[in-house]
Specification:
GO molecular function, one term: metal ion binding
Number of helices: 6
Pfam family, one: Glyoxalase
CATH class of the largest domain: Alpha Beta
Protein name: VOC domain-containing protein
CATH topology of the largest domain: 2,3-Dihydroxybiphenyl 1,2-Dioxygenase, domain 1
Number of strands: 16
Oligomer: single chain
Order of helices and strands: EHEEEHEHEEEEHEEEHEHEEE
Organism: marine sediment metagenome
Shape: globular
Distance between the termini: 30 Å
Keywords: Metal-binding
Structural class: alpha+beta
Helix content: 10-25%
Strand content: 35-45%
Length: 280
């Protein structure tokens, strides 16, 4: 029932500064301003590609302020779109998954999932802007990837036959990709179960438990993103298993607490079960 990885929600201390960062690095354009009583926040929404990033600054007590006080800036939630939001809401209720409603969207708190705050929105057509094409992945660190996959398949109406196993000794995890609609789209939830606690993802999991770790975006021009990072003196790392500019990782210090993977168009199929689609 999910169609896209539609957005990321970030808890930030200064949404104007965050909007400027996304503009300078990714070519983001401001879409709208607003507030969320549910989250106790003032909101600036920017768009890059066809995806949106909600930059949430605390206005009162709530989830945004709590995140900043405990973890500092970073990813608060992921957003998915659905063709029939009403039907998805009914499906969640039937399965005992609680949610709140605000501004025509559904908010599913992390205590209802394997550690992810989730916003569900109706499908919306958008014209792409900026340097990336779209956000296609959220990484959810979990204790048991098989149990988490079963939960998401049931709750969100995903087809397990479309899922792809993953394993990385370099990054210290095993798990699976919960692909929504392959081979037409890369959109998915990446489930990672830690196998090596001493590595970066393992240390993050030791601190935060089941949680959102990062997001991944796709672009036709990785080098252009790299140049903008260099111009700002922002921290990033190249993918060690491919020659640059095949992809890179933008460090959380460069994007207000968000770790963002950047891959060139179709490259991610090489680790998503369909390597033949990864050609240029």
């Amino acid at each position: 029932m999910l169609t896209r990885v539609d957005r990321m929600l970030l808890a930030v201390r200064d949404r104007e500064a965050a909007a400027d960062t996304f503009r300078r690095i990714l070519g983001a354009e401001r879409v709208r301003e607003g507030t969320s009583r549910l989250l106790g926040a003032r909101r600036t929404v920017v768009q890059v590609g066809i995806s949106q990033f909600e930059l949430l600054e605390p206005a009162s007590e709530g989830a945004v302020l709590a995140h900043l006080e405990r973890w500092d800036e970073g990813i608060l939630a992921v957003g998915f779109s659905a063709a029939d939001l009403s039907a998805l809401g009914s499906r969640l209720s039937q399965r005992g998954v609680s949610y709140s409603e605000e501004d025509g969207r559904l908010w599913v708190a992390s205590d209802q999932t394997p550690g992810m705050n989730v916003v569900l929105s109706p499908d919306e057509e958008r014209s792409p802007v900026g340097l990336i094409n779209w956000l296609y992945e959220v990484t959810n660190i979990v204790d048991d990837h098989e149990r988490a996959a079963a939960f998401y398949a049931d709750a969100f109406g995903l087809d397990p036959a479309r899922f792809s196993p993953i394993h990385s000794d370099r990054y210290g995890y095993t798990g699976q990709l919960l692909l929504f609609n392959p081979p037409q789209q890369l959109d998915r939830i990446e489930l990672t179960q830690i196998t090596e606690p001493s590595l970066a993802m393992g240390r993050f999991a030791a601190s935060r438990g089941q949680s959102i770790y990062m997001g991944y975006v796709e672009t036709d021009d990785v080098a252009a993103v790299q140049r903008r990072l260099d111009e700002r003196g922002a921290r990033y790392a190249g993918r060690s298993d491919d020659p640059n500019p095949e992809g890179l990782f933008i460090h959380p210090t460069a994007l207000h607490g968000m770790l963002m993977g950047v891959s060139r168009t179709n490259l991610a199929w090489s680790w998503s079960g369909r390597p033949e689609l990864a050609q240029r």
